[in-house]
Design brief:
The chain contains 21 helices and 2 strands. By secondary structure, the protein is mainly α.
Length: 495
C-alpha cells in the first residue's frame, strides 16, 4: 500500500547531483508545491559496507559471555562446532535491490499486513530495547577503568549511556560519510580487540596449553532442547550480517558489492569468533568459562597483567560500533516503511543539505531513552526475541517463495536454494521450541506482536478518518518539516 505524499517540496531551482537548492513549504501556503529532487546518495563503498556488517555483528557478546553456546552444547568441541556452523549458516542471499531489509522482503513476498507488523514491532520495542541494551554495555565498560576498586553506580552508567546514544543519533543525522568513516575506525578497533585475545591464545597453543581440548566432545550430552538453544545464541551473536541489505539504495554497485561485502565480512567474523573461543579455552576451562561474567576480562587478567585495562575500552568501542551500525541500517527500514505509507510521512523525508533521513534516525531517540530508564530491558528483549527470529525466518522463506512466485525477477545475486531453506527452518524451529520451553515470555511477545494487526487496520486501511484529524496530521507534518529542514525524497514524490 503506497500513500501519496501529503506535503511536497516547493522548489525555486534545480537539484544537481543531490545538492539542494530549494525552499521548504510555507505554513500558510495553500498552493500546490512543485517537486524537488533530494535523494539518499550512494556513499556506501565496499570497504564501508564491510565495516557496517562487521561493526554491527561484533558487539559485546564475544568479549563478555559466550557461555550460552557452551552451556547448551555441553562440550568444548561441540560449542566450537556450533560457532562455526552458525557463521556458515549466516551466509544467505537475496535478490531485492531496494533499501529496507526485512520489511521490504516481507512486503514483496507476503504483502502489506505482515510487513507493517514487522516494522511496528521493530519501531516500538525491538530496536529501542536492543539499542538500549548494547548501549548499557558501552556505558558500563567505558566506565570500568575508572571504577576498578568499586561497583559502578547504575545512575552513572545510564547517564554515560544516554550521552553515547545521543552522540550516535547526532552522527547519523549529520553525515552519512562521517558515520561510515567512524564505523570503519570502530571496526578496526573491534578487530584489534579480537587479535589482542587471539594472539596470546595462539602463543599458548604453541607452548602446548591444550589440556582443555583433550576429549573435546566429552562432557554433558547436548539435549534436544539445548542444541537448538545453542544455535539461537550463536545466530544472535552473528546477527547483523543482513544490515547492508537495509541500505541497498546507498551502496555503490550493489550487485557486486553487497554479496562480496557479506562474504568477506562473514569469513572474517566466523574465523575471528572461532579463534577467539579457541583462545579462551587455552587459558580458561569450560567450567571456569561458565562461571565468568566477562570472559575476555578474565582471560586478559590471567595473561596480560596491567594491559588487561585496555580490554574494557575496546569492548566499549565495539559496543559503540554496534550502536552506530544498527541505527544507520534500521533507520532506513523506517524510511522505506514511511515511503510505502506504513509509518508517518515525515519519516520518509531527507534533510535538504545533509542528505540524511533525519526524522527516521531521531524517532528512535525518545523511544530508546524510555527503554534505557525503564529498568527491565532484558526481560523485554526476552519477550520479543522470538518475534525477531520469527520474522527473520519469514524473510528467508519469502525469498524462497519469490523464486517460484516471480521466477523472472532480476536477481543480482543468489545462493543455492538449500542454504536459505536450512536457515529458515532453523529460525522457525527455534521459534516453535521457544513456545514450548518458555510459554509465558513467548506468549507476552506474541501478544505484543499481534497488536500490530488492529493498528494496521486503524492507521492504514481505515481511510474515513475525520477531516479535522487529517488536517491536524498535515499541519503537524508541515511544522516538523520546517523545524527539521527536511523534504520528501525523489522516490517519495514518484510514488
Amino acid at each position: 500500500m503506497v500513500r501519496k505524499a501529503a506535503v511536497t517540496t516547493v522548489s525555486n531551482g534545480s537539484y544537481l547531483q543531490g545538492q539542494a537548492n530549494g525552499r521548504l513549504p510555507s505554513m500558510d501556503s495553500e498552493q500546490p508545491a512543485q517537486e524537488g529532487k533530494v535523494v539518499l546518495k550512494k556513499k556506501v563503498t565496499l570497504l564501508r559496507g564491510i565495516s557496517i556488517i562487521i561493526g554491527t555483528i561484533i558487539g559485546a557478546g564475544i568479549f563478555i559471555s559466550p557461555k550460552g553456546i557452551l552451556k547448551n552444547t555441553g562440550s568444548v568441541g561441540m560449542s566450537l562446532t556450533v560457532w562455526t556452523a552458525c557463521g556458515i549458516l549466516s551466509l544467505f542471499g537475496t535478490c531485492i535491490k531496494k533499501s529496507g531489509g526485512h520489511y521490504t522482503y516481507i512486503l514483496e513476498a507476503f504483502g502489506p499486513l505482515p510487513a507493517f507488523v514487522r516494522v511496528w514491532v521493530e519501531l516500538l520495542i525491538i530496536r529501542p530495547a536492543a539499542t538500549a541494551v548494547i548501549s548499557l554495555a558501552f556505558g558500563r565498560y567505558i566506565l570500568e577503568p575508572f571504577f576498578m576498586q568499586c561497583e559502578i553506580p547504575e545512575l552513572a552508567i545510564k547517564l554515560i549511556t544516554a550521552v553515547g546514544i545521543t552522540l550516535v543519533m547526532v552522527l547519523n543525522s549529520t553525515s552519512v560519510s562521517w558515520s561510515a568513516r567512524i564505523q570503519i575506525f570502530l571496526t578496526f578497533c573491534k578487530l584489534v580487540a579480537i587479535l589482542i585475545i587471539i594472539v596470546p591464545g595462539v602463543i599458548q597453543l604453541i607452548k602446548g596449553e591444550t589440556q582443555h581440548f583433550k576429549n573435546a566432545f566429552a562432557g554433558n550430552d547436548a539435549s534436544v532442547m539445548g542444541l537448538p538453544l545453542a544455535f539461537y545464541s550463536g545466530m544472535y551473536a552473528y546477527s547483523g550480517w543482513f544490515y547492508l541489505n537495509f541500505v541497498t539504495e546507498e551502496v555503490e554497485n550493489p550487485e557486486k558489492n553487497i554479496p562480496l561485502a557479506i562474504c568477506i565480512s562473514m569469513i572474517i567474523v566466523t574465523v575471528g569468533y572461532v579463534l577467539t573461543n579457541v583462545a579462551y579455552f587455552t587459558t580458561i576451562s569450560a567450567g571456569e568459562l561458565l562461571l565468568s561474567k566477562a570472559v575476555a576480562v578474565t582471560f586478559a587478567e590471567r595473561l596480560m597483567g596491567n594491559f588487561s585495562l585496555a580490554v574494557p575500552v575496546f569492548v566499549a568501542l565495539s559496543c559503540f560500533g554496534s550502536m552506530n551500525g544498527g541505527i544507520f541500517a534500521v533507520s532506513r527500514m523506517f524510511f522505506v516503511a514511511s515511503r510505502e505509507g506504513h509509518l508517518p510521512e515525515i519519516l520518509s523525508m531527507i534533510h535538504v543539505r545533509k542528505h540524511t533521513p533525519l526524522p527516521a534516525v531521531i524517532v528512535l531517540h525518545p523511544l530508546t531513552m524510555i527503554m534505557l530508564f525503564n529498568g527491565d530491558l532484558y526481560s523485554l528483549l526476552n519477550f520479543l526475541s522470538f518475534a525477531r527470529w520469527l520474522f527473520i525466518g519469514l524473510v528467508v522463506a519469502g525469498l524462497i517463495y519469490l523464486r517460484y512466485k516471480r521466477p523472472d525477477m532480476p536477481r543480482p545475486f543468489k545462493v543455492p536454494l538449500f542454504i536459505p531453506a536450512l536457515f529458515s527452518f532453523t529460525c522457525l524451529f527455534m521459534v516453535a521450541l521457544s513456545l514450548y520451553s518458555d510459554p509465558v515470555n513467548t506468549g507476552i511477545g506474541f501478544v505484543i506482536t499481534l497488536t500490530g494487526v488492529p493498528a494496521y487496520y486503524l492507521f492504514i486501511v481505515w481511510d474515513k478518518k475525520p477531516k479535522w484529524f487529517r488536517k491536524l496530521l498535515d499541519r503537524v507534518t508541515v511544522t516538523l518539516q520546517i523545524l527539521l529542514e527536511v523534504v520528501p525524497s525523489e522516490e517519495d514524490q514518484k510514488s
